[in-house]
Specification:
With 195 residues, the chain is α/β, with parallel strands linked by helices. Helix content is 57%, strand content 13%. Strands 2-1-3-4-5 form a 5-stranded parallel sheet. Helix 3 (50-64) links the parallel strand 1 and strand 2. Helix 1 crosses helix 8, helix 3 packs parallel to helix 8 (165-190) and helix 5 (98-106) packs parallel to helix 6 (123-134). The relative contact order is 0.18. The model has no long low-confidence stretch (mean pLDDT 96).
């Protein structure tokens, strides 16, 4: 196989998957985020591996790239970004607890947790979801494959219909960029922070 053939095959898989994105679920996620923004609730995002990178990217984009002058910002953070804390929690309390333990210090009723996972099976993701729900947080999940147990725990699931990790991770990042562009326009137009 040549690189050109591989490029074409990969892009065909990605395009096919993107054409099947569950737009209603993405719309529901946008409304969940808008409600959190309007109500001044905190949004937490997390993931493992490539999904950790997407979680950090999403927190940065929604926190910075959705606002203009004098606009209130999203209260948003990625739970992947404090490496000393992650390693301390993992070492002392177990890797499966590293996200839920952070949420114990942070999450309050009505806050939002967004988990990003290809398989939806990671124990640390599932424990964080369970903890957020136990504290009356709303839980959304960007997933792939069949969604795994995370699909059952989430209040809202955006399932990318693919069993190809690269395609799933690409689609999750594209959903991020769709949301960022949408909020940049909506917040500038509606100015909900000034109401």
């Amino acid at each position: 196989m040549t690189i050109n053939t591989h490029i074409r095959e990969y892009l065909d898989r990605l395009i096919s998957t993107l054409e099947g994105l569950p737009m209603d679920s993405v719309e529901s996620l946008s409304e969940l985020l808008y409600r959190a923004y309007s109500d001044g609730k905190q949004v937490f995002i997390l993931g493992n591996g490539g999904s950790a990178s997407t979680a950090s990217h999403m927190a940065a984009d929604l926190g910075k790239n959705t606002i203009g002058p004098n606009m209130r910002r999203f209260r948003i953070m990625s739970l992947n970004d404090n490496i000393p804390l992650l390693t301390a929690l993992s070492n002392d309390l177990g890797y499966e607890n590293m996200f839920a333990e952070q949420l114990q210090n942070l999450i309050q009723s009505g806050d939002v947790l967004i988990v990003i996972s290809g398989s939806g099976k990671s124990p640390n993701v599932l424990r964080a979801m369970e903890y957020a729900r136990s504290r009356s947080g709303e839980v959304a999940a960007l997933l792939g494959f069949d969604g795994g147990p995370a699909a059952e725990l989430a209040d809202l699931t955006v399932l990318v219909d693919s069993s190809d990790y690269g395609v799933v991770e690409d689609a999750h990042l594209i959903i991020n960029h769709i949301l960022v562009e949408y909020f940049r326009e909506r917040l500038a137009t509606e100015q909900p922070w000034s109401a």
